[in-house]
Q: What sequence folds into this?
């Protein structure tokens, strides 16, 4: 974890304030991803990294270079995220299966605007990270630690345990480095890490992604697109695992099993004039933006779908619906209307 980015690249002198902004900016994407893991929200992560940069700028004169600038920025970002969680009226972000049992009827009423929903993360934000190689003690690779199942699971950890696990097992920091970030003892860090690992192990079997051959995944996804765009319910259902799960935040209702999912979509699809799927990158998982044909023949943005697959088919798919999808569209560079 040695990093000498607090040294000016042109000399051995400490960074001047004029150089600081450029050096700090090289860490922005990695800090944003760290804040996303902490908070479960793309939009909160953007706010957190902005606050991190502001706090770093204001306190730069007191930075003495005893730690690397990267570690210093992560310390600020982690504590910003912890403060944001503490200030929430509801502490944890969730997805529908964590709230109630599976539904058997179509949704009634309106989407749940009060619950804090976990949000997806654009793959474009993961490109060109300044330090994609985690430390030697990291337990999770990048593609594991950004999956929706992992983000969902770690939101259930107490905030400080979440911070410890992310710093130690995702970034690969030593207990001593983590202790410095959290103003804690090494012993308390090790204890929190053990509790966090034990809790995480019980939460979700999908935290570790299933292995699937690239060719098989490509075939499954091609069949998935064809089934949607032809509105062929039988072909769509045949791609699902027997106990597949479908969720659609911000609606609380969710569905489990082929029969239940088939009944839901069998009642919903006839209301639409047609579908188009556009591949997008989200959480390093297969993902699509769904567009539906409007009365004027235009293709209007509908939702953002994330899938998890294994060799037996589609295990879960989560559709981020309106109005949540509307907030996500700019981050995924999605138009509200497709050209014909």
A:
């Amino acid at each position: 974890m040695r990093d000498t980015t607090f040294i000016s690249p042109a000399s051995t002198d400490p960074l001047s304030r004029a150089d600081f902004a450029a050096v700090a900016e090289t860490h922005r994407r990695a800090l944003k991803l760290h804040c996303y893991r902490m908070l479960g929200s793309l939009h909160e992560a953007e706010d957190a990294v902005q606050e991190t940069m502001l706090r770093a700028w204001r306190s730069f004169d007191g930075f003495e270079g005893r730690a690397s600038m990267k570690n210093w920025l992560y310390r600020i970002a982690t504590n910003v995220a912890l403060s944001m969680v503490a200030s929430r009226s509801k502490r944890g972000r969730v997805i529908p299966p964590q709230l109630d049992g599976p539904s058997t009827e179509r949704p009634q009423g309106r989407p749940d605007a009060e619950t804090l929903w976990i949000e997806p993360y654009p793959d474009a934000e993961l490109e060109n990270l300044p330090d994609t190689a985690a430390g030697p003690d990291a337990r999770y690779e990048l593609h594991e630690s950004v999956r929706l199942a992992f983000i969902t699971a770690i939101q259930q950890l107490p905030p400080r345990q979440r911070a410890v696990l992310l710093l130690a097992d995702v970034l690969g920091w030593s207990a001593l480095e983590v202790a410095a970030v959290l103003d804690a003892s090494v012993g308390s860090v090790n204890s929190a890490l053990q509790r966090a690992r034990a809790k995480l192990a019980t939460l979700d079997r999908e935290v570790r992604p299933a292995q699937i051959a690239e060719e098989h995944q490509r075939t499954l996804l091609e069949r998935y697109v064809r089934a949607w765009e032809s509105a062929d319910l039988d072909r769509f259902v045949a791609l699902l695992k027997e106990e597949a799960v479908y969720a659609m935040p911000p609606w609380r209702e969710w569905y489990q099993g082929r029969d239940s999912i088939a009944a839901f979509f069998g009642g919903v699809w006839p209301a639409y004039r047609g579908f188009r799927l556009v591949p997008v990158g989200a959480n390093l998982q297969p993902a699509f933006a769904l567009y539906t044909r409007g009365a004027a023949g235009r293709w209007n943005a509908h939702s953002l779908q994330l899938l998890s697959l294994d060799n037996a088919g589609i295990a879960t798919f989560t559709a981020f619906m309106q109005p949540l999808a509307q907030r996500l569209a700019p981050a995924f560079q999605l138009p509200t209307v497709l050209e014909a």
